[in-house]
Amino acid sequence: MTIKKKINEFLSRASRLVKGGGEVSVQKQMKSGKLNARERIDIILDQDTFFETDLFVEHTAKDFGMESQKLAGDGVITGFGKVGGRAVALFAQDFTVAGGSLGKAHAGKITKIMDSAGDMGIPLIGINDSGGARIQEGVDSLCGYGDIFYRNTQLSGVIPQVSLILGPCAGGAVYSPALTDFVFVVDKISNMFITGPQVIKSVIGEEIDAERLGGAVTHAALTGNAHFYAKTEAEAFEQIRGLLSFLPSNCTEMPPVQDEFRSPSKPLEGQDVLPNDRKKSYDVKDIIKGILDSSYFFEVQEHFARNIIVGFGRICGRSVGIIANQPMVLAGVLDVNASDKASRFIRFCDAFNIPLVTFVDTPGYLPGIDQEHSGIIRHGAKLLYAYSEATVPKFTVVMRKAYGGAYIAMCSRHLGANMVIAWPTAEIAVMGSEGAANIIFKREIANSHEPEKTRLEKVKEYEEKFANPYVAASRGYVDMIIEPHKTRDALIKALELAKTRRAPQYMKRHGNLPL
Ligand code: HXC
């Protein structure tokens, strides 16, 4: 065969393979409102940067007619590319090829690209759109999932791993995304569940449709399994680009620094930050935006456990992770979900050298039978653990209430905060004045001729004595008290100082986080 013929043969083989599952399946994918795998890759990556690997991989399965079936790329596309100028590794399951089902060769392509991502120290993006384990390949498919889960775990904390759910992702397949750092879902396109509606109906008789069981809204708002919710695939791709811009490529690097940055477009002004009435709520995002560069806050898990806010931003061009109680939702209490949400975020930031800035205004852990029986002790402990364990620089701003266990849990100095800043409006006490006065002045109130008047007097007395930052500052638990509008400047100085921070640690294999 001449060289020209050989090249033509190669080109014709390659062009067949890039067509995926053929015209009928591609049309079906389009009609279902989904992009196909190659379109997705083209949109996520910077233009013309895709560098495909393993296009010619084939399965070797023989049972159930597989011997005669040619599956383009074995139903998954793998390779490298750039996002925002930085290298990433990625895989995209191609639903047009045998429903993107995962057989041994398919899994082998994924694990190979995962290994490369780890070797090169670059983020991994996984696009999931699959009918799950390839039924014809039996236990080989299960082995493939196990190999992926193992690598997800080995690479956790080494490189950022993100998962897009852009179609079905059912059964054990959901556990790869669940092991990654961030999960993106798209309205009416994503579906994730361990067992689908039909199995649920036949086994326990409950009826629910796939969307309500495991659609995008369910996972973004109810289960917390998803971190980002988008209306369209294009929006999700933008979110991924936004997210990666804050992150280093791997745990040995520092996050990228933006040389050109702007001050907040809505800076905190003088006294106007908090409502005068200390019982009134406010939107803590206004405070966060008043401190970050260009007032740009990139929120994570926006729709889940809204009583705590987490997300990324920049201060003088440097990435920071923000954790803030949200007084607008449940008065900013800490509960089971808020503890889980914040703890996981803190651990991510700690793994990837992103300093933590915590804004505190919380009345405490949420009381009640439901919370106690849902394991608030165990879940709340995660927050203590995550903050105590974190060795990145940790700064805390106490804005208003910091009561009881929640004062300690929200990155107090006792858990290793490097700088605790309080505003004059801070109330650092063992509990709220009402509750405290009712307990310690119980007898005086009961014996009084005017119990309600006495009670109010005692509440006021407690409030004046303890509901302020001065007692904590007098003990050195608070490093400085400043006016709110000086917070950004203080954080800039603190971040600058913390650049050289060293954090001594005990030798150990690993700790035992209360899961
Ligand atoms: C082999 C599969 C497949 C699978 C889909 N296909 N899932 N082939 N193994 N798991 C094939 C179909 O036969 C079909 O091939 C093509 O993909 C498109 O599928 P359709 O059913 O036509 O598409 P749609 O109507 O959109 O339905 C999508 C679906 C459905 C809901 C995902 O295909 C489905 O229920 N699939 C099975 C899901 C499942 O039970 N998977 C195993 C889970 S167990 P043709 O040739 O007709 O185009 C599991 C264990 C993992 O994953 C454990 C890890 C620890």
Overview of the molecule:
The longest helix has 17 residues. The strands form 3 sheets. Strands 10, 11, 12, 13, 14, 15, 16 and 17 form an 8-stranded mixed sheet that branches. The protein has 2 domains: 242 residues, 2-enoyl-CoA Hydratase, Chain A, domain 1; 183 residues, 2-enoyl-CoA Hydratase, Chain A, domain 1. Helices cover 38% and strands 17% of the residues. β3, α4 and β4 form a beta-alpha-beta unit. By secondary structure, the chain is an alpha/beta fold. The chain has 20 helices and 17 strands. It is elongated and about 105 Å long. The structure holds hexanoyl-coenzyme A.
Which descriptors apply to this entry?
binds hexanoyl-coenzyme A; eight-stranded mixed beta sheet; 2-enoyl-CoA Hydratase, Chain A, domain 1; about 525 residues; alpha/beta; single chain
Structural class: alpha/beta
Straight-line N-to-C gap? 63 Å
The rounded Rg comes to 26 Å
Number of domains: 2
How many beta-strand elements? Answer: 17
Number of helices: 20
CATH level-four homologous superfamily name of the largest domain = 2-enoyl-CoA Hydratase, Chain A, domain 1
- Give the fraction of residues assigned to helices: 25-40%
What does the oligomeric state look like here?
Answer: single chain
CATH topology type of the largest domain: 2-enoyl-CoA Hydratase, Chain A, domain 1
Ligands (ions, cofactors included): hexanoyl-coenzyme A
Q: pLDDT below 50 for ≥5 consecutive residues: which ranges?
A: none
CATH architecture of the largest domain: Alpha-Beta Complex
